[in-house]
Structures are given as C-alpha cells and as structure tokens.
Amino acid sequence: MTRGLLGLVASGCGGVEKWFRTDLAEPAVQRGWQLAITFTPAVAPWFEAAGELDQLQALTDLPIRWEPRMPSEPKPYRTPDAFIFAPASANSVAKLALGIGDNQALTALNEAIGVEGCKVVVQPHANADKRRHPMWETHVTTLTGAGVVVVSDVPPRSLLDLLDT
Ligand SMILES: Cc1cc2nc3c(=O)[nH]c(=O)nc-3n(C[C@H](O)[C@H](O)[C@H](O)COP(=O)(O)O)c2cc1C
User: Fold this and answer.
1) What is the per-residue pLDDT for 165?
2) How many Å lie between the centroid of ligand 1 and the Cα of residue 91?
3) Pocket flag, ligand 1, residue 15 (CB < 6 Å)
4) Nearest Cα to 96, choosing from 79, 114, 69, 81?
5) Number of domains in the chain
C-alpha cells in the first residue's frame, strides 16, 4: 500500500545529479510514495554520466522517462497524484508558464496543472541573471495563479512536507 503516485521531475540545473536521489527521491520513497520520475532531455544525460540512472530506477517499478512514447505504445502509468518539479530551470519555468510541452517532462506537468486534488510543487533554480529577465515574475505569477506551489530556498526534502499541507 503506497501513499500514492508522486511525479518527480528534474531539469538541467547544476549539481542536480548529485542530490536528486539522496535528498528527494529516496526520502519520498521512505515516506511511502511510489515514484514516477521524468527528466527533461537536457538533464537525462547528466544522470546517466553520473551513474545515477540505475540507482534511481531501483527506487521504482515505473520506467524513468525522458522521451515521449511512440503512438503505438500505451501510457506507461496513470497521471500521478502529485508532482514535485525540482530543480526547475529558468527555461522550463518559462515554458511551463506558457503551456509549452515540447518534452515528456513538461507534457506531464502541463497536464497536471489544474487537476483537482493534484498538487504541483515547483522549485526554480535560477540565478539573478536569469530572474532579471522581464518575463520571469510574470511566469511565476502565472503558475501560482493556476494553483502551482512555487517555492525557493528550502531543502529538497522539505518539498515533500508541502504535499501534506
Ligand atoms: C552545468 C550547467 C548548470 C546549469 N545550471 C542551471 C541552473 O541552475 N538554472 C538554470 O535555469 N539553468 C541552468 N543551466 C542551463 C540549462 O541547463 C539550460 O537552459 C537548458 O536548456 C535547460 O533545459 P531544460 O529546462 O529542458 O532542462 C545550466 C547548464 C549547465 C551546462
């Protein structure tokens, strides 16, 4: 009996391959979540190069995804009960706010926003240079206005607490 299906999504932010498993995926499993992990195509090779893919895959019986399925293939699993998108790059935050789903990670997140009972937590990792972009605040406001919980400056493990509130 699991707590539910948790979508964990990560994008191309420096160092993610060093903490994503230990600080987010493993604690989520310890709290009883079944994991549906999706990476952006940009970050998947980082996990592969770090030798993290096998260890992450061992945490879940669902396939780690970073490519879309073929039309002939069924969806590999149902829509998760909740999502944590951490880290979220400036690039992916902008695309998500605009509803762009040009990869599997963004497609899953876009489809989850606004679904009743499905909490979506997004933790942007964007430095001051990226946040200075004139559209940055608009993107964040768009997401929060749609019910997305956007948080900064908390340890990854604490993101899991937000699923309980
Ligand atoms: C080593 C490295 C670290 C990066 N760190 C960040 C970061 O912390 N935040 C960010 O917004 N972009 C960062 N980038 C840039 C993104 O990886 C880049 O914009 C990429 O296109 C994001 O694609 P994605 O959002 O599909 O994962 C980094 C790039 C590299 C090569």
Assistant:
1) 80
2) 7
3) no
4) 114
5) 1
